[in-house]
Amino acid sequence: MPASSALPQLTRIAPYFPVANVERSVAHYTDVLGFGLEYSAGSPAQFAIVSRDGLAIMLRRVSDPAKIAPSESQGGTWDAFFWVRDIDAVSRELTSHGATIVYGPIVQESYHMREMAVRDADGHVLGFGQSISR
């Protein structure tokens, strides 16, 4: 491709999580998981964006919470995964704030990560991992 042709640039990504109660979910993300509230819409809130270190998650209220189906319930592992610099520091922080730990930190030899996972207030699982040397 010629140097003068600029490709579109993707600048951000945000998982989109259905939640039963946006305000409760925002409180969990801010108080327990260390995210900040970036945006909220509605009264009571129907939608919000929380972020940490420039990485966002969108939260949207659904009318029937029974329809919330995190990836884990469908045979998956996480609903979002974050690469981190220091998994031990993340683990200490999340544990000290009362996060529901799903597992870890553990070593995943098959893909060279030391990782952990936590569950949010609606059952979504967030993975956090640090690459390790082979």
Summarize the structure in words.
This protein has 134 residues and is mostly beta strands. It has a single domain (16-63, 70-131), classed as 2,3-Dihydroxybiphenyl 1,2-Dioxygenase, domain 1 (Roll). 15% of the residues lie in helices and 37% in strands. It has helices at 22-31, 87-96, and strands at residues 16-19, 36-41, 47-52, 55-61, 80-83, 100-108, 113-119, 125-131. It has a four-stranded mixed beta sheet with strand order 1-4-3-2, with helices on one face. Strands 5-8-7-6 form a four-stranded mixed beta sheet. The longest helix has 10 residues, at 22-31. The chain starts with 15 loop residues before the first strand and ends with a strand. The mean pLDDT is 94.
What is the gist of this entry?
The protein is mostly beta strands and 134 residues long. It has helices at 22-31, 87-96, and strands spanning 16-19, 36-41, 47-52, 55-61, 80-83, 100-108, 113-119, 125-131.
